[in-house]
UniProtKB/TrEMBL annotation:
This is RBBP9/YdeN family alpha/beta hydrolase. It comes from Mucilaginibacter angelicae. InterPro entries: AB_hydrolase_fold, RBBP9/YdeN. Pfam families: Ser_hydrolase (PF06821). Keywords: Hydrolase. Transmembrane segments: none annotated. GO terms for molecular function: hydrolase activity.
């Protein structure tokens, strides 16, 4: 499998460890990981600025962002703040920063931004994600103008939920790479 786009991986809170599908994809395809300065107590404006720095190192029209969890909210805020149109975004397991179950320590990510994204996107949701209800995840996807893909009982779509390789996710990324 090859990709024609510049794929930028954006992990969520705590970063993605070596067995996470984002890390596996990064190594397997030589994708670029967006390195935030604070993975544990992030500030949304800081994350959005660093995200913008990475995007503008490439031709934005050829960039696909792959965000997991808190990175989905970051991408929504970044799109609103910087208004740069990219090729697309794969938004996986968006976390609900307004939920009581959401970990403390983040700043500026709530409320979740519910404005349309100026680029194509696919939002992957689970029926039993402990960081977001399926109803809220669908609300996010609809508000962002994303194609919503529900993959069933998949937890937070991370290592603890059994997602390492995740070939089905690669197929969704390939769909964005081809322009749908």
């Amino acid at each position: 499998m090859t990709f024609n786009s510049d794929i930028l991986i954006h992990p969520g809170l705590g970063n993605s460890g070596p067995q996470h599908w984002q890390s596996i994809w990064e190594k397997r395809f030589n994708f670029t990981r967006i390195e935030q300065q604070d993975w544990e107590t992030p500030v949304c404006a800081d994350w959005a600025k660093i995200l913008n720095d990475y995007v503008t190192r490439h031709d934005p029209a050829n960039v696909i962002l792959v965000g997991h969890s808190l990175a989905c909210a970051t991408i929504a805020y970044w799109a609103s703040e910087y208004n740069i149109s990219i090729k697309g975004a794969l938004l996986v397991a968006p976390s609900d920063t307004e939920a009581e179950s959401y970990p403390s320590g983040t700043n500026g990510f709530a409320p979740v931004l519910l404005t349309g994204l100026p680029f194509r996107s696919i939002t992957v949701i689970s029926n039993n994600d402990y960081y977001v209800s399926p109803e809220r995840a669908r609300l996010f996807a609809n508000s962002w103008g994303s194609e919503a893909v529900n993959i069933g009982d998949a937890g937070h779509i991370n290592v603890s939920a059994g997602y390492g390789e995740w070939d089905a996710g690669l197929e969704l990324l390939k769909k964005l790479d081809k322009g749908y």
